[in-house]
């Protein structure tokens, strides 16, 4: 008997062309290229121009993913972001309409930097359950709209970008089939990453930074390594894989030191640990599919490789999943031929 599964069938990503280098940040903040490189591994990040919204990046990435999957229609659109175009409505319907996808169901999933794994859980669940046959999952972030430009502890980390995957119904065992997706969350520590004001709890800022993204970086760092290694082991066990089976680790690009520590925890040699944080920074929920698209484009990911995905971020929320790379074709995210 063949078992219905959810299969990754296309990937695409888009990075806005404007760059902010470490030298640009050192011109206006008490920081240095040396500190940023040593403590985060970041050299530059892409930023959207003022007026460019999450849906604008999402449409570019979504259209590339549809082209990569060689399809023009899907049955649903799931979108993940921490920077929606507006507090309401959701950003997904706007993206679906602009991609010419008609009136398919379209909704947002909110899980900060773990958004792609949470989105994958929802999207693959509705495919595997037989509710739909094909889903576009888009992760899009304009962190430059929520990061305090004067806060050196966050302004140096985040970048803007979007990436998307097409998921389709298939069978377990074929290239691209997703293994079990393991998730977790801990609201007790939810204050470690937050925007305090602007919601129903605190409608307006009481202090100057309250309307901006805030993070207790040092504490978050420790939680990130611990939670991603735990949940990765759970996902590997659920898939029946050992660490030694993992040929590519694609972790949320939070900090090069976090990614390195995670690789060490899981016993993965550095050649198996993919990264693009040096050139793209931390792009929130977009970082995993962005790295998948980039690695597929530049040959670091090839057909049949066993891949482990894992993320951690605000919520706190975390997740991990496995898949065998399907060998889809993707454009490099900073290539803009159109
Ligand atoms: O994506 C969601 C999940 N996010 C993460 O997982 C991020 C986790 N956290 C981190 O990546 C790191 O904690 C940061 C990059 C945010 C900070 O690096 P750190 O090595 O943990 O620095 P720290 O917060 O322990 O601060 C060390 C020192 C402090 O100075 P003092 O008190 O020792 O004098 C900071 O004020 O570094 C200072 N500092 C900076 N110095 C120069 C903090 N940011 C900067 C900066 N430039 N940009």
From TrEMBL:
Group of enzyme by EC: transferase
Record-linked InterPro entries: ACP_syn_III_C, ACP_syn_III_N, FabH, Thiolase-like
Segments of this protein annotated with the region ACP-binding: 253-257
Catalysed reactions, as listed in the record: malonyl-[ACP] + acetyl-CoA + H(+) = 3-oxobutanoyl-[ACP] + CO2 + CoA
Localisation per UniProt entry: Cytoplasm
Involved pathway(s): Lipid metabolism; fatty acid biosynthesis
EC number: 2.3.1.180
Residues in Beta-ketoacyl-[acyl-carrier-protein] synthase III N-terminal domain copies: 107-187
GO molecular function: beta-ketoacyl-acyl-carrier-protein synthase III activity
Main localisation: cytoplasm
Domain called Beta-ketoacyl-[acyl-carrier-protein] synthase III C-terminal: residue spans: 236-325
Subunit structure, interactors included: Homodimer.
UniProt similarity note: Belongs to the thiolase-like superfamily. FabH family.
Free-text domain note: The last Arg residue of the ACP-binding site is essential for the weak association between ACP/AcpP and FabH.
HAMAP family per the UniProt record, alphabetical: FabH
Protein purpose: Catalyzes the condensation reaction of fatty acid synthesis by the addition to an acyl acceptor of two carbons from malonyl-ACP. Catalyzes the first condensation reaction which initiates fatty acid synthesis and may therefore play a role in governing the total rate of fatty acid production. Possesses both acetoacetyl-ACP synthase and acetyl transacylase activities. Its substrate specificity determines the biosynthesis of branched-chain and/or straight-chain of fatty acids.
Name of the protein in its database record: Beta-ketoacyl-[acyl-carrier-protein] synthase III
Provenance organism: Amycolatopsis speibonae
Gene responsible for this protein: fabH
